[in-house]
Amino acid sequence: MATKISPPSSRFSGTPSQPDATDSEQASPRKNPLLVDKAAPRVTAVEMGARQREISVSEFFTKNRHLLGFDNPRKALLTCVKEAVDNSLDACEEAGILPDVTVKLETVANGQTPMSPSQATRFRITVTDNGPGIVRQQVPRIFAKLLYGSKFHRMRMSRGQQGIGISAAGMYGQLTTGKPVKVISRTGPRATAHYFEVQIDTKKNEPLVHEDKQIEWTQPQGTEVAIEVEGRYQKGRTSVDEWLEQTSIANPHVRLVYHTPEGETKEYPRTHHELPPSPKEIKPHPYGIEFGVLLKMLQDTKSHTVSSFMASDFCRVSPALAEEICKAAKVSPDARPRAVKPHLAETLYQTIQTTKIMAPPTNCISPIGEKAILSGLYKQIKGEFYTAVSRPPAVYRGNPFVIEAGLAFGKGPEESTRPQQAAMPLAEGEDHGHETELARVIRYANRVPLLFQQSACSTFKAVLNTTWRNYGMAQSRGALPAGPMVIFVHMASVWVPFTSESKEAIADYDEIQKEITLALREAGRRLGIFLRRKERAAGEFRRRNIFALYIEEVVEACNRLKGGTLPTEHLKEQLHKIASSRTGGLKTDEALGKTGVGPEGLPHSIIVTTEGIEGEAEVAQTPTAPVVSRQVAHTERHAETTAPVKPVRAPKIRPASGEAKPPSASKAKVVQQDLFVGNVSPGRKAALPKARRTRTTGIRKGK
Amino acid sequence: MAQVKPKKNGAVEKKLIGMADVVISAAQRAKDPTFAIPIRALSNVSFNPRKGLIEMGEKKQARSFFNVGMAKKFMQTMLVADALSELQRADLTTSLREIYYRTKHTIQDSHENTFDTQDESDPIIEDLEVSLVALREELHVRAENSGSIVGPVVFGDDGDRVDCARLGKGGYSVPSIVEPEYLEIRRCTADFLLLVEKGTQWNRLSEDKFWRRYNCVLLTGNGQPPRGVRRLARRLHEEYRLPVYVLVDNDPWGYYIYSVVKQGSINLAFESQRMAIPKAKFIGLSSADPEAYELPRNVGIKLNDKDITRAKELLNYRWFQKPAWQEEIKRMLANGLKFELDALANKDFQYLTKKYLPRKLKEKDWLD
Ligand SMILES: Nc1ncnc2c1ncn2[C@@H]1O[C@H](COP(=O)(O)OP(=O)(O)OP(=O)(O)O)[C@@H](O)[C@H]1O
Ligand SMILES: [Mg+2]
Quick check: A48 contacting B, CB < 8 Å? Predict the structure, then answer.
């Protein structure tokens, strides 16, 4: 480690995040500041006063970096990537540009000889986007001043909120490596590109510009951020790789290229070619604010009367309603907002809570959408069945939100039809290994994957509280369902209630729980239908197999009885026909995916078989004329498209003539990500009970 | 397999080939190939009191190919039919076990055997016997030889003269097929035939030359008499008018053996015509004998639950409805004891030969 940083102080009682990784630096022993050293002389108020002074945010951060996700080198690396990528996506979407983001991780030799990625302690993170770019004057403050941003003061859904993210990453880099943040930005093809090197003056929380020059840049528009940090690169759970992977699932409109520290290039192609609708900015809803915020708003408002303040600074409050609230609170509607006494403000606050106010408008959130979720899941996860559910908007504490859920189930057709080994009889108490694998939950808030603090998250609790047994899954009490399944849950909101500053888990509001549960039930119900149908079809198929197996024997016996003169092929054919018509005929074929006709009754679902995909097939396919951007062509699911880079998930396409194998000229590697990294539970095979139908409910008002 | 005299009787073979035709014509009509197989169970037999025989009823069971529960059995039936027709063509006889091995193989592209145990193929042969109305012998299937005969009777077996009065105490081993084409009865001067359940008692009687003293034929099937033994008894009874006496243990099983000899078995009721001996008499051991012959109670064996259930079942059989039989069975139940023939040795090793049977015959103490 280059710079020794004092351990985080316990003065700030926020909610210290629990480090998820084991190599936490917090283990170092520290003094408890509350313990009084007996030998030390008492200090006077004057002496204390001499020591009391302002703490700059940057100083605060220096000591409390775990609050922002820099608990340990491994997590810090991920946080830096995440902050930069989030910003790129936010900026592209706001500017109406389909995002094209490149992430590059490189090891940096720290004096000695270069180390392998798993050994290295220093990395350079470079994130490039095709976004709107940043105007020259703003660059230093954006990258080298904490709490500077465009998103904090708006009620609008975005990934970033606080104006802290990228400058915190830069500061972490500066603290651990001493290197400045390097930024290239260009606001359009006709503008010149600028190159900056900036650092933060941590005492003042002000930027220090080391370099500011025009440069030639190959990109017509966009931003590139490079930060050198102390970090650790490790694959697996809570890794950069996993985060990018999950980002790609929830953001199928993004094309992501990832250069790993090992020198591989992974591409997550764009499978959804529409930008999510741009969320509208709204004013706060009266139910959503806290008392302190109300007081502050009363102070800050430009309105001259309380009633006009109410009507213009909040959404869903008409002048008439404002009057009514004032009357009920016994506050004069014409009083000057700044003159309202605290105790009156309190009654005003109470009155607001008990007044019936229309739910806030919901166009401030932009859910991913069922099609896009399906597309993302299908692209990234091997499976047999996919479904997605977007709930109608709902409200918690005056904040509109939308819950979306998705399921990817199964091992993928390649695996499910792999010839089975001769079934070995199980000994008493023995169990088929694969049935004990637990489902995996992937969680998102405003399209950003949440990798830490799973068990504290409202989404995870809702998954546990869902009775998956109703949908044909095995599930032990209080556990995740067992089986090859990925459960996707997304909360989109103008304000996602996190359990702590580290933005890792969604707080457990009843309204949120309820919405997640309803979404999961609907998805589960569809899964149940799929599983039951599959089971039934498999039963018919087994029957048909039995007949097929014996037809051979029967025909041969008949032939021998008839002295070997029988037209055996003809007889076999006749018998096979009878067998097929007696085992559900076409219906079985269909359910088994042998005819290419999608099974009905499963909205927003994809069923995958060895021979192709059914259901929302168009989702899984992309336009035949893909947009070619920069040096790398799009890789599409279509056979006719040749691509220099293999898609991350190689599609299994209906055997078509001339299936084009992407040329292996590129060193890009196909990553067939298997999200089922199994935890093991005492799994039991569940029967297939009745599925319960959930009613879709409309928007409901918060408390 | 053993070579037998060639016969020019293709009737059985035609019936077997007919089974292939059932499949072929059903397939042509897009129908499920189905055989109707007479049910071999108590529910489908009736007792004909006039003839004194158990007769098979009309009830049949469909065996269809395109039925998951029956598909395998159907396939097995065809395989057995094929094997049986092979025997017909080659004019060979074989055993149940050899049929099992002949038809057993692994089904192509699978881990499944056509037959897993002989218990699967044996009933299919019986199914075919009843469906095709062909005797097992006609199907060229042998039962195991497990019977012995001794006494004043002369057979011609494969051209050899077999005089059962000159075969010492071991006697002649009864072949499994005793139809006239296979076994010729050249001479018989006996007055009656004694069918003994157990080999030990038959040995005792043979050793004591009981047959010579009472001029009879001694026959045993070592337990439930096999088909050859029953058929031979029937032939001697029919062709030489020998009265038949059955000597069994005093237990429900003994009663049942007697009833099978007398009026046929439930399982193969259709064969009663050629096997049963309606005039056969039950000479012992009767439940009345322990008292009459003063057998101490301690040589009896307590009836177990199975015995009791079985005895109660017998009480309900149509052919045990005669008052004497009801009394006989009820007496056993009342005593709560069963007695083996061997128990007579309690009195004397030769008690059976010297006292018991002479007195029984003299007193004509038997049940019909
Ligand atoms: N790649 C980019 N392209 C264009 N603008 C950007 C880019 N990165 C950052 N910005 C601008 O810089 C501001 C500050 O970014 P920063 O990450 O510090 O805060 P934030 O994204 O607003 O909130 P959070 O702290 O939650 O990340 C953003 O609000 C955005 O306006
Ligand atoms: Mg940000």
Answer: no
Segment B122-169, tens digit of pLDDT: 999 999 998 998 888 889 988 776 799 999 999 999 889 999 999 998
Q: What domains lie within chain A, and their CATH numbers? A: 10-55 (no CATH), 65-268 (3.30.565.10), 286-354 (1.10.8.50), 362-420+433-619 (3.30.230.10)
Helix (H) / strand (E) element for A577: namely helix A568-581
Q: Which B-chain residues 213-242 have CB contacts (< 8 A) with chain A? A: none
Distance A165 CA to ligand 1 centre (A): 7
Give the pLDDT confidence score for residue A657 in this predicted structure. 38
The better pLDDT of the pair B47, A442 is held by A442
DSSP string, A227-290: EEEE-----STTSHHHHHHHHHHH-TT-EEEEE-TTS-EEEE-----SPPPPPPPBPPPGGG--
A560 touches chain B (CB under 8 A): yes
With beta carbons less than 8 A apart as the criterion, state whether A683 and A435 touch: yes
Contacting B residues, span 59-98, partner chain A, CB-CB under 8 Å: 65-66, 68, 71-72, 74-75, 78-79, 81-82, 85-86
pLDDT of residue A322: 93
Pocket flag, ligand 1, residue A129 (CB < 6 Å): yes
For this complex, say whether ipTM is above 0.90.
no
Q: Is A147 in the pocket of ligand 1 (CB under 6 A)?
A: no
Interface test with B, best of A545, A551, A558, A566 (most B CBs within 10 A): A558
Among the partner residues B19, B68, B108, nearest to A561 by beta-carbon distance: B19
Q: What residue has token string 């048909």? A: A544
Residues B169 and B207 in one domain: yes
The pair phi, psi for residue B15, each rounded to 5°, is: -60, -40
With the most atoms of ligand 1 within 8 angstroms of its CB, the residue from A85, A166, A171, A196 to mutate is: A166
Residue B233 has pLDDT above 90, yes or no: yes
Q: Which residues of chain A have pLDDT under 70?
A: 1-41, 54-55, 112, 152-153, 412-436, 584-604, 608-703
Q: Is A552's Cβ below 8 Å from some Cβ in B? A: yes
Same domain, B86 and B183: no
B213: in domain: yes
Tens digit of each residue's pLDDT (9 = 90 or more) over A628-650: 233 333 333 333 333 344 444 43
Please give the residue of chain A at the shortest CA–CA distance from B25.
A571
B101 is catalytic: yes
- Contact status, residue A278 vs residue A157, Cβ threshold 8 Å: no
> Residue B243: pLDDT above 50?
yes
Rounded Cα distance between B315 and B318, Å, is: 8
**Mean pLDDT throughout B254-261?**
94
Whole-model pTM? 0.59
- Residue that terminates a domain, selected from B142, B176, B195: B142
Q: β-strand B192-196 against B216-220: which pairing, if any?
A: parallel
- Strand order across the beta sheet in which B92-95 lies: B2-3, B92-95, B141-142
